[in-house]
Protein 1
Amino acid sequence: MSTEVVAVSAVSAAQQPSPSTPAQQNAVEKVNLLGMSRPQMEKFFEDMGEKKFRAGQVMKWIHQFFVTDFAEMTNISGKLREKLEKICEIKAPEVVHKNYSKDGTRKWVFRVGDGEGSLVETVLIPAEHRSGLRRTLCISSQVGCALDCSFCSTGKQGFQRDLTQAEIIGQLWMANYSYMEDVPVLERERSVTNVVMMGMGEPLLNYDAVLNSMRVMLDDFAYGMSKRRVTLSTSGVVPKIDQMVKDIDVALAISLHAPNNELRNELVPINKKYPLEQLIAACQRYIAKDGNESSRKHVTIEYVMLDGVNDHPEHAQQMIKLLKNLPSKINLIPFNPFPHAPYGRSSRNRIISFQKTLSDAGFVCTIRQTRGDDIDAACGQLVGQVADRTRRAEQWKKKIAQSNEIMRSQG
Ligand code: SF4
């Protein structure tokens, strides 16, 4: 276990876009350009009486050169830069904690508002792939989550609010920026190769912000990611899966975790509203019927392995039956226990035997490598710890203030 833990204040200073720019000193009144999709930014410029091609120029500076100071945007006239400084800002959420694991996993906790509940986390997991090194970023979409899946640390924290587009894209911006703090502007290159909308929250319950953020990820004027490398993971909000077919072409993952309604009602309570038959039918509608270019050729099935709960041989058989008409790849996830978790992790043997049953039935079935155990990579865990520490620090400060008060009153 070796973890580089960096103090809050040091991270804030090093990782934040320069806090001294006028754009950031007056954040409340200014429009944050960070999360805007191209159509949104084009409209913004047109409304200002400017040409809409300025949107593409500014987006490149923000998302390809990681510039947050308008003064550095050298292909934009001085007059427009001054105007932008007065009314806009480019502001990522504040980093309050970061952990870098020896295996390359990086994890951040961002503050997205006041109060100890306003924290979200983002994790980056590197993996060697035949096409080269992949760095996959798991992005949060909400502060907390209302869906209360029984095995999930985030669900235990309750729902606070939806993230804004700037807060969603800010996680991707900051993860890329963490590799290039000292790199000259024009030599900067993006490091994150893949995104999964699989962090805290249910992304399809924050639909518009998530949709526009994914548009920024795919946009050649921003991150230019291939649609196969952007994955939305849902616990099964059926009407929004159908809506996605009309709105965007990205990969889809389903947090399945149980192969029958009775067990899934318990583990993933949204199943009571959209049971498995409806969910699988929506996935079948999502699969594209045409073209090789689409990312919608199969659905990824996520299945967390809970000891003695959903890992019996008959569960594997039920999976085979359930998925037989759905082009899918199955990803078995060894459970990462968190304090007071009501479940344990299935044994290695049990997971391998589950995988074998599915592979023998013709499914592509992988076991997710456990990475970043030393930095609490289970979703929602690190936020819980940071919140605990913040609470303890505040209690400590209160105690010191009280004892100072007593000493003063005693003369
Ligand atoms: S697993 Fe996902 S949908 Fe379920 S409570 Fe956790 S964050 Fe929410």
Protein 2
Amino acid sequence: MTVRRLAPDVVQPAAFAFSKTNDNWADGQIAKYPKGREASAVIPLLWKAQEQAGGWLPQKAIEAVGRKLGMPYMRVFEIATFYTMFNLALAGEHFIQVCGTVPCHLKGAREIIKVCEDVIGPQSTVTADGKFSWLEVECLGACCNAPMVQINYDYYEDLTPENFTRLLDDLRAGKKVKTGPQVDRSCSEPLGGGETLKDKALYDGSAVGRGDWQKRIAADREAAKKAAEAAEAAKAAAAALGTAGGAPAPTPASVASVSAPAVATAAPAPAWPAASAKRQPSSSTQDTPAAGGLSLKGLSTSKAADKSKDGIRTKVASVKATKTAAPAATEIPAPTDAPTLLAKPRGGKGDDLKLIWGVGPKLEKLLNRRGVWHFDQIAAWTDKELAWIDTKMEGFKGRAVRDQWVEQSKKLATGWRPDSAVGDKPGKK
Ligand code: FES
């Protein structure tokens, strides 16, 4: 422990005043705090005063800070004498703070202190050449590299009496010294080098089966670029068709005028029967279904004047008309093995799928996006359908089987409800 007293009168200067620059700086610090709270700037001001006084705090400097902040001197003394970062006595050019707290103590801080006593002299005294002074302080927060010292603004760690003595010799000789650990290790990694997290796969995503993340991002960007180009090309083609031969693109009025015959003559959009036909025919028009039972594939396969501008207009009108007439909630087409999927919940409201243990808000949204809204839908899944759904659960693969969604949903579909809002864990008695 260190006794914290002001330096004897004999070394105290007769006066202290902040330099113009430091005074301006102090004003800037004080301005950071609300009016009436100027005292909050006491530590930075004491630090600046110590810097200006040559590495220690004369009594007059402490008083000057008190005056600047409108604080009683005693309050400022209390602070200056509490923190060992403030030197109350003259300090050497290299001011050494030796940590003497338990971890450093156990790792040999006493031997480091012995070196200080032998080479420099008693605590808080400056060597005759003015080069060194030292002080024992409490933990400096580098315990894993104990024992350590702080010299001016730098840390020196993993000290032994030998390397510390060498360090002092080098400092005295004005040589450049290495800061941080004085043994062969980087920062606070284990002695002899790091032993964990060496696998490169941990940093490129391959450890979680996502491959090289840089390549993946590059591929994603390329795909997005191509998709944007394709969309642009499609837009340009549509514009060209609309203006070819000087004919205007169809307006709402013109669409209305042709819509009735178009519905009659164009190939009908595929309508998937409700519960009876949850599988779609393999050769039909289901590839790109639009929500609400609308399929655009009929547009491309119809014989109605595919190459003629008028034919295409008629098709557009037909599609619009079909969309208008679509039923409110119908099953949407899905590939073979897909279960019954609904574009919208029945009755306009889906079940609270979060009551299935393991399904949170994210998964519920994902299920809804996939056309799953009700417990009875899940309860009816066959093994094949379960496997199909699993392929659509991006980021949650395997959850449906692991958490027994089908079994849980069978129970929930009967009207039974769990005690908890997150459901009952399967297997709970
Ligand atoms: S105990 Fe010495 S740095 Fe923490």
